[in-house]
């Protein structure tokens, strides 16, 4: 079920009760070209930590090559960010990144829970 909120080029389409690839219910929002899928656990964890989530890319070395993964925090650090529309939280994406088609947010970690971000369904930036 989809409903459109807003008007013109800034219209927001909300898809209710979506199911992610992991089988969890997700809130899905499309703004411009970015679709944000956030699990209820991710939204709750971000809200518990102040309501803001900052997402940026980090270059890592692995297996003789490099890989770019997404990092998240409730603090912005020294990077420039731009706001991305998301239900229930304030979401900020590093200004230097192009917008993915889809940004998925979920919770991970056994001892210390944290929000994980996935770029177009991948754990790395493509």
The CATH architecture category equals: Sandwich
The succession of helices and strands, N to C, reads EEEEHEEEEEE
Point out poorly predicted stretches.
Answer: 1-31
Helix content: under 10%
Total of DSSP H or I helical runs spanning 4+ residues: 1
> What is the CATH topology classification name?
Hypothetical Protein Aq_1857, Chain: A
Number of strands: 10
Q: What separation lies between the terminal Cα atoms?
A: 29 Å
Sheet with the most strands, sense and barrel status: 6 strands, mixed
Structural class: mainly beta
- Summed over residues and divided by their number, the pLDDT gives a mean of 75
Q: Strand order within the widest sheet? A: 1-2-3-4-9-10
Number of structural domains: 1
The CATH class, by name, is Mainly Beta
Describe the global form. globular
- The percent range for strand residues is over 45%
How large, in whole angstroms, is the Cα Rg?
15 Å
How would you characterize this protein structure?
This protein has 126 residues and is mainly beta. The protein has a single domain (2-119), classed as Hypothetical Protein Aq_1857, Chain: A (Sandwich). 7% of the residues lie in helices and 52% in strands. It has one helix and ten strands; from the N terminus they run E-E-E-E-H-E-E-E-E-E-E. It has one helix at residues 40-48, and strands spanning 2-5, 12-19, 25-31, 34-38, 52-62, 65-73, 81-84, 90-94, 102-108, 114-119. The strands form two sheets. A six-stranded mixed sheet has the order 1-2-3-4-9-10. A hairpin with a 5-residue loop joins strand 2 and strand 3 (25-31). The longest helix is centred in the middle third of the chain and has 9 residues, at 40-48. It is globular, with a radius of gyration of 15 Å.
């Amino acid at each position: 079920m989809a409903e459109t909120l807003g008007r013109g080029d800034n219209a927001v389409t909300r898809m209710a009760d979506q199911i992610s690839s992991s089988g969890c219910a997700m809130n899905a929002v499309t703004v411009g070209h970015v679709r944000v899928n956030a699990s209820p656990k991710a939204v709750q964890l971000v809200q518990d930590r102040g309501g803001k989530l900052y997402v940026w890319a980090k270059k890592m070395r692995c297996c003789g090559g490099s890989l770019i993964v997404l990092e998240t925090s409730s603090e912005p650090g020294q990077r420039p960010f731009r706001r991305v529309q998301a239900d229930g939280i304030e979401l900020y994406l590093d200004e230097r990144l192009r917008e993915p088609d889809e940004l998925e947010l979920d919770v991970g970690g056994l001892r210390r829970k944290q929000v994980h971000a996935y770029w177009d369904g991948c754990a790395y930036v493509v």
